Amino acid sequence: MKVCRRSFLSLIIGGAAGTAFSPLPWKLIDDASIWTQNWPWTSVPEDGEVSHVNSVCTLCPGGCGITVRKVNNRAIKIEGMKGHPVNDGGICVLGVSGLQLLYGPTRVKTPLKRTGVRGEGKWKKISWDEAIAEVVKKLVSLRKEGKSHTVASISGSDRGTVAQLLGRFLTAYGSPNFIRTPSIQDSYELTAHLMQGGQDQVGFDAENSDFVLSFGSGLIEGWGSPVRMIKANSKWKERGKVVQIESRLSNTAAKADEWISINPGTEATLAFGIANVIIQESLYNTDFADNYSYGFEEFKQFVLSEFSPDDVAEITGVSSSTIESLAKNFAKASKPLAVCGRGKGETPGSLNEFIAVNALNALVGNINKKGGVWSVPDLDYIKWPEPEKDLVAENGMNKGRIDCAGSSKYPDTRYLLDRLPSAINSGEQYPIEALFVAGANPLYTMTDSKKVKEAFDKIPFVVSFSSYMDETAENADLILPNHVFLERYEDVPTPPGMQKPVISLSKPVVNPLFDTKHLGDVILLIAKSFGGKIADAFPWDNYEACLKETLGNDWDKLVDDGYLFHSNFRPAAWGNAFSNTPSKKFEFVNKGKAESVKIEGDEQSYPFILMPYDSMRLASGFIGDPPFAIKTVEDTVLKAKEIVVEINPRTARGFVEGGYAILSTPKGQAKVRVHYSDGVMPGIVAIPRGLGHTAYDDYLAGKGVNFNELIGLVEDPVSGLNAAWGIRAKLTRA
Amino acid sequence: MKKQIEAKKYGMVIDLDKCTGCGACMAACMSENNVSFRKDESNKLDSITWMRVYKLTNGKEFPEADMCYLPRPCMHCEGEHGHAPCVSVCPATATDYNHETGIVSQIYTRCFGCRYCMAACPYHARYFNWWDPVWPEGMEESLSPNVSSRMRGVVEKCSFCFHRYQLAMNKAYNDGRRELEEQEYQTACTQACPAGAITFGDLNNPNHAVTKIAQPDSKHGGRPKNPNAFRLLERLKTNPKVYYLSSREWVRRAGDNYIENEGKKEIL
Question: What's the pTM value of the predicted model, to 2 decimals?
Fold first, then answer.
């Protein structure tokens, strides 16, 4: 048969048309896509029975209720718990990513003992018996040498049974050095102690406030209990006004009804300036000032003589007309509230500023009033008798604290962790021979990383109770891994800033995955090894028994509901709210001169001011970002492995958007990328906090710079707390 | 065959005044839908985020600068009669407009990765799997059995948590019901949002909050009657089912492409 051109083309075209009209190509495409997806490594999650467990998240101090969805024994999703008094169903980016910490590669799976040089990452797996024996051996020998006071413990919290057990152990053992990690809680507690008396927590009836004046607080960026504050912010959108005073257009500033840019570090001055107008115009609450306060006249003279709106405008950069209208609007609001503590509030700040802001609250008479600042007493469910101390313990406890908290120099401050490195490095008092770290990651979170590391290197015995291989665990001698929050029981008392007392119960959602042990049980085991009065101070068989006994009748309710909320709580009336101050009244204390805190570095060599900023998407506390959370971080914050700093285009001469620069401060240097942002005040370099981890997994480690490496300490002269809000810096082309 | 269920049109209203840009919706979505992650996710063009929160700025100088966050799920465009931009171009029928729910589906096993739909989508709501997903050892334990994990070579996107609709419907059928209560079917992002900025429901149901807030005008392709509400790229007539609310005009204008000074109400 002859194949001519015509028949050839007919065959081809006909064939093609025929095939196209047949189902064949579509079937082939479909099959091809199915068969190219059937690989053995494509994961097929196992199905099974679905159940839900209510618990509480302890990844930050926020204390949100969570509901964890499980399939068989696997936890597959963390959701906010509906009806929980703190977060009522809402959840944050860190909380929702919590399962990646449970199942993630950063877990410490067994007790570990260091074999190589510190920080080298060489470990030997040891048994729990060996681990505890190791700790006890060290502690016993220190006690024998009469050095019990040289043992220190850094804890993320001082409330709740676990922290209390740790503190109790130190007391019975004979060391005064139980130290809580610093935050604005220190400043708020101290302010309340000085002005209102007592040691109550400070709560904010934020939801009911109709005019919130925030001095740089990241109200929606993690300040207080983060989800609760974001919820409150949504309420203010409906009926309330927020004024944000800050040098940078933060998320809070952008969401606020009014953003007032201020020269950084002059917040206290502005607060006094506002007080000046309120007093001048007689807009203050006369009932409160006349009948329930002490020192008002003196305060009045101080404010009137030194803080005229014009002078304040000069210092703060806020015009006097703005100051005046702000003061009037604040004082005339029916439920005004002034708050401070920068960003998430992870650095305490200057006492002067807190006192100034709290004085504003007092002037408008919102202390212990609806929508105002409340004194929230600690729930006293922990009613353990004082531990009996033997002679060694007595001697040890009589030694002064290494951080000088409570000493004649800082009589009212309770913890001063930031002073620990200099105390160790200078060797003025006594060396620290053993350090225990629980619920904290000081090597990452503490200011002036170099000095902190230097001090840690001087401590011969460092024990970490971390569940994750964080920076502190990496540099420890011994890791005794605690269960992750989803594997353990724990009581979680009222979160910071909450206006009504609440206890939540953290419950095991899954059985412990690895050979870890509850910190409470570890403390009991260590204490029992000592025998004598130390063991006697811990009469419980195990932590769960201790918790059950401590909570007493509340236990059942906590197990059933997950929380215990004192919804009817009302703070004390003015008549008897201040019975713990010397005058039995609210005291307008006047501690130190109202000077703005001077930051480190000279203007000549360091023309810029470097300031950190906080973001919900970047966990900057003792927990680092899990993979989901770091994935949400914008490329104007982190680009590949480089941190991006924000500068105003007006001061950005010589730099290109996205280009490299060298950022140097008196404390250190870092290679950064530059991002133009009109939201930053000219002259300021804004740097995100929460990056620059050296530990954790490949998803987080080695990305960006830790701000703490670039900044030093600025000690508040009255409280001793860290008041540094920034540092002078230089930006040069890379 | 008689239609048993009245047609739904699931949609979303996102209040940008309330949105704080915290990112909880993004992570909640990832956790709910087994979204994969890699060591470096800072190249946002290939970072798979079914829900992505964009940051808008008003372009003014300090201190007049302002910004706003805008969460962007899949818009589940209806176009005209279900002709969503992506649906029209898919050669494999891997993406389809479901007239029962108004949800634009994505069927991974049908997708062979031509990425026409990505080119067609004006919202960058679709993402391509350039790599096989790899979970660090142990983390596969946290995967949900309700959503199949994807693999290299397929496109994925927000499904309005369609599996939650299926689960809710199954439960309703078991209880002898044909209709869902408003709260029975909510997406993971709606549920997670700490600000309560996201509202989800049936735009065909006048009693649902979404309808009450957005007030879609069915005569004009679903355009919102609420003066503060807008949809992204309205003039493309994609008829999206995600509405945004903002009290700031510059934000509303940022939702579409305008010629300078076109239709401006404010004198700037």
Answer: 0.95
**pLDDT per position as a tens digit, A228-284:** 999 999 999 998 999 999 999 999 999 999 999 999 999 999 999 999 999 999 999
Please report the pLDDT score of residue B268 as a whole number. Answer: 44
B139 lies in a domain?
Answer: yes
> H or E element: which one contains B71?
strand B67-72
pLDDT of residue B4: 59
pLDDT at residue B33 greater than cutoff 80: yes
Band the pLDDT of B266: cuts 50, 70, 90: low
The range of the structural domain enclosing residue B46 comes to 10-254
Residue B259 located in a structural domain = no
Note whether B63 contacts A681, CB cutoff 8 Å: yes
Residue owning tokens 């805190």? A597
CATH code 2.40.40.20 for A608-733: yes
CATH superfamily to which A201-376 belongs: Dimethylsulfoxide Reductase, domain 2 (3.40.228.10)
- Dump pLDDT digits (tens) for B38-87: 999 999 999 999 999 999 999 999 999 999 999 999 999 999 888 999 99
User: Mind listing the pLDDT tens digit for each residue in A97-151?
Assistant: 999 999 999 999 999 999 999 989 999 999 999 999 999 999 999 999 999 999 9
Instruction: Please name the fold of domain A130-184+380-485+518-562.
Output: Rossmann fold (3.40.50)
Same fold, A201-376 and A608-733: no
Q: How far apart are CA A261 and CA A272, in angstroms?
A: 17
Looking at residues A32-40, what average pLDDT do you find? 79
Please indicate, yes or no, if residue B5 is contained in any of the structural domains: no
- In chain B, what residues touch A261 (CB-CB under 8 Å)? 62-63
- In a domain, residue B35? The reply is yes
User: Does A635 sit within 8 Å of B31, measured CB to CB?
Assistant: no
What does residue A162 show for φ and ψ, rounded to 5 degrees?
-65, -50
Q: Is the pLDDT of residue A594 over 70?
A: no
Nearest CA in chain B to A631: B41
Nearest residue of A to residue B187 by CA position? A79
Residues 156-185 of A with CB under 8 A from B: none
What pLDDT is stored for residue A37 in this prediction? 77
Is B194 within 8 Å of A254 when comparing Cβ atoms?
no
Which strand ranges, in their side-by-side order, compose the sheet holding A74-80?
Answer: A50-56, A65-71, A74-80
CB contact (8 A) between residue B194 and residue A630: no
In 3D space, the residue among A567, A564, A560 whose CA is nearest the CA of residue A507 turns out to be A560
Residue A5: CA atoms inside 13 Å, Cβ hemisphere, count?
0
Domain count, chain B: 1
Domain boundaries, chain A: 130-184+380-485+518-562, 201-376, 608-733
Residue pair A587/A295 in contact (Cβ under 8 Å)? The answer is: yes
Question: For the domain that residue B82 is a member of, what is the CATH number?
Answer: 3.30.70.20
Structure tokens at A288: 């409160």
Of A95, A230, A679, the CB nearest to B195: A230
Which residue in A540, A642, A518, A626 sits closest to A162, CA to CA? Answer: A518
> What value of ipTM does the predicted structure carry?
0.95
CB contact under 8 A, B23 and A632: yes
